[in-house]
Design goal:
Rossmann fold, alpha/beta, 11 helices, single chain, eight-stranded mixed β-sheet
């Protein structure tokens, strides 16, 4: 396990690192999850091995520190990841981001263009979301800290619960709120404007991605992965590995 200080207060991001050749691959997890858990099988797949890989936990989640005084905006997450990546001596990483991690990856590429060579978004958030649709963001932070978190955990599936309970409560709530709120310019606008290879993976069963035609017009490769739900890398590791290997070829 490796770590790096990413805030003036000394808060540290941690990651599991797999040695290998360049270019480096950076894996970013979704809300309430953890990269070493969610990506372990996929990163070890024969189609994806051989590269130096950082399975990184965002600040507030998994094995990283959980400061209560961090803003947990998408921009702050991206800047913290950038600090960790630079501390690891990484340049021009191939970034794979799932759900929330994809949103952070877009902002990372937008704000720190020299750090990202290619982008693979895995059923990622790219549009604002109505907070009422989120079990977490629909609560105030006070409600969430006073018992709302426990109600969300009770309704979560066993896999998500196993990693969500590791998240800092402030991190979980504030990140969920900012995930719903999005960014200015929007994540979709930032994605359209990036000048690098970009792929958007989504479950085949969900049908066409909203705005897929415009994404393709801006150079984003939109690919459906069969036999999976939102957690593509867990539900279909072979399909995920094949799609990611193709995107990064």
């Amino acid at each position: 396990m490796r770590d790096a200080t990413v805030t003036p207060n000394g808060d540290r991001i941690r990651w599991v690192e797999v040695p290998g050749k360049e270019p480096v691959r950076l894996y970013l997890h979704g809300l309430g999850s953890s990269s070493p858990v969610y990506y372990a099988a996929a990163a070890a797949h024969p189609l994806l091995t051989g590269h130096r890989s950082l399975l990184l936990d965002l600040l507030g989640f998994g094995i990283s520190d959980r400061p209560a005084d961090f803003s947990y905006t998408l921009e702050a997450h991206a800047d913290a990841v950038a600090a960790a990546v630079r501390a690891a001596g990484v340049e021009r990483a191939e970034v794979i981001g799932h759900s929330l991690g994809g949103a952070v990856a877009i902002v990372l590429a937008h704000r720190h263009p020299g750090l990202v060579a290619k982008l693979v978004l895995v059923d990622s958030v790219i549009d604002p979301v109505d907070p009422s649709r989120s079990a977490i963001a629909s609560q105030t932070e006070e409600e969430f800290l006073a018992g709302g978190r426990e109600r969300v955990e009770q309704s979560a599936g066993p896999f998500w619960w196993a990693t969500m309970r590791l998240a800092g409560p402030e991190a979980l709530h504030r990140t969920a709120v900012h995930r719903c709120r999005g960014t200015v310019p929007t994540l979709r606008e930032q994605l359209h404007g990036l000048d690098l290879p970009r792929t958007f993976l989504h479950p085949e069963a969900d049908g066409e991605v909203d705005g897929a035609a415009r994404l393709r017009e801006s150079g984003v490769l939109v690919e459906a992965v069969p036999d999976c739900g939102h957690n593509i890398m867990i539900d279909n590791p072979d399909g995920f590995a094949k799609a990611v290997a193709t995107a990064l070829a």
